[in-house]
Amino acid sequence: MTDKSGGGGAPRQLKVRVKTAKKRTASSTRWLQRHLNDPYVARARREGWRSRAAFKLIEMDDKYKLLKPGQRVVDLGCAPGGWCQVAAERVKSADGNPRVVGIDYLDVDPIPGVIILKKDFLDEDAPQVLFDALQGEKADVVLSDMAAPTTGHHKTDHLRTIHLCEVAAEFAREVLRPGGSFVAKVFRGGTENELLAGLKRDYASVAHVKPPSSRQESVEMYVVARGFRGVQVEAAEDGDE
C-alpha cells in the first residue's frame, strides 16, 4: 500500500457512464455509476485498502490521534476489513503479536496482525469471545462502523443504528482501559439524549464528526469519545443509618 497518510485528494479521472441493464433498476444503475466515479473508491483500490471506508477512520485518526503504536483495538462489524487494516498499520500490529481484534457475521479475508472472529456482535456470548481474544488485556480503542440494514424509513433506520451504538458503547465501557477511545457510527440527528449523556459521563471529550470521505448525501455521522474515565460506581451502597 502507498500514501496512507490520508492527505490530499485523488487525481482526476474520466467519468464512467453505466448503461441500464435489463435486470438492473434505474436506482441500482445510479448507485453503480456513483460508485465507479467515486474518487475514494479508486484511491482505495490504488492504495490496497479493502474499502473506501478506510479513509473515514484515517481522517478521524489524523484529526483526533486515536491510534498509537502498541495499543489494542477492537473493531465491531469489521467487514470487509478496511478499518482493521488501518488500525493494524497504525498500532503496529503483527501476526506474532496481534493487537487488533475484528468481529463480523460476514466472512472477512485474513489481515496481517488482526484476529478475525466470524460472529454476530449481538450474540449473547460475543462479548466473552472478544474478551478471550484480547487474552485478558483491556482495549485502548473500540471502533464500530456497524449500521443496521436500511429500510428506507429514516426514523426506523436511525433507531436501529442507535441501538447498535448503544450496545457497542456498553461493551466499550466494560473493555476499555482508562484514557481509551470509542468511535461509532450514528445517523444524522446524532446520538439519542440518554446515550449522549452516558458518553459525556464516561468520557472526557465527546464530538460528532462527519469525515470528508463520508458522502455528503449520506445521513451517517460518527461519535468520537475520548478519555475514558473508567467504570464509575453508579450508586453508592446504603450505609448504616
UniProtKB/TrEMBL annotation:
<dbReference type="InterPro" id="IPR002877">
    <property type="entry name" value="RNA_MeTrfase_FtsJ_dom"/>
</dbReference>
<dbReference type="GO" id="GO:0008650">
    <property type="term" value="F:rRNA (uridine-2'-O-)-methyltransferase activity"/>
</dbReference>
<keyword id="KW-0698">rRNA processing</keyword>
<feature type="compositionally biased region" description="Basic residues">
    <location>
        <begin position="14"/>
        <end position="25"/>
    </location>
</feature>
<dbReference type="Pfam" id="PF01728">
    <property type="entry name" value="FtsJ"/>
</dbReference>
<feature type="compositionally biased region" description="Gly residues">
    <location>
        <begin position="1"/>
        <end position="10"/>
    </location>
</feature>
<feature type="binding site">
    <location>
        <position position="104"/>
    </location>
    <ligand>
        <name>S-adenosyl-L-methionine</name>
    </ligand>
</feature>
<comment type="function">
    <text>Specifically methylates the uridine in position 2552 of 23S rRNA at the 2'-O position of the ribose in the fully assembled 50S ribosomal subunit.</text>
</comment>
<feature type="region of interest" description="Disordered">
    <location>
        <begin position="1"/>
        <end position="28"/>
    </location>
</feature>
<feature type="domain" description="Ribosomal RNA methyltransferase FtsJ">
    <location>
        <begin position="49"/>
        <end position="228"/>
    </location>
</feature>
<dbReference type="InterPro" id="IPR029063">
    <property type="entry name" value="SAM-dependent_MTases_sf"/>
</dbReference>
<keyword id="KW-0808">Transferase</keyword>
<keyword id="KW-0949">S-adenosyl-L-methionine</keyword>
<feature type="binding site">
    <location>
        <position position="120"/>
    </location>
    <ligand>
        <name>S-adenosyl-L-methionine</name>
    </ligand>
</feature>
<feature type="active site" description="Proton acceptor">
    <location>
        <position position="185"/>
    </location>
</feature>
<dbReference type="InterPro" id="IPR015507">
    <property type="entry name" value="rRNA-MeTfrase_E"/>
</dbReference>
<dbReference type="GO" id="GO:0005737">
    <property type="term" value="C:cytoplasm"/>
</dbReference>
<protein>
    <recommendedName>
        <fullName>Ribosomal RNA large subunit methyltransferase E</fullName>
        <ecNumber>2.1.1.166</ecNumber>
    </recommendedName>
</protein>
<feature type="binding site">
    <location>
        <position position="145"/>
    </location>
    <ligand>
        <name>S-adenosyl-L-methionine</name>
    </ligand>
</feature>
<comment type="similarity">
    <text>Belongs to the class I-like SAM-binding methyltransferase superfamily. RNA methyltransferase RlmE family.</text>
</comment>
<feature type="binding site">
    <location>
        <position position="81"/>
    </location>
    <ligand>
        <name>S-adenosyl-L-methionine</name>
    </ligand>
</feature>
<keyword id="KW-0963">Cytoplasm</keyword>
<dbReference type="InterPro" id="IPR050082">
    <property type="entry name" value="RNA_methyltr_RlmE"/>
</dbReference>
<keyword id="KW-0489">Methyltransferase</keyword>
<feature type="binding site">
    <location>
        <position position="83"/>
    </location>
    <ligand>
        <name>S-adenosyl-L-methionine</name>
    </ligand>
</feature>
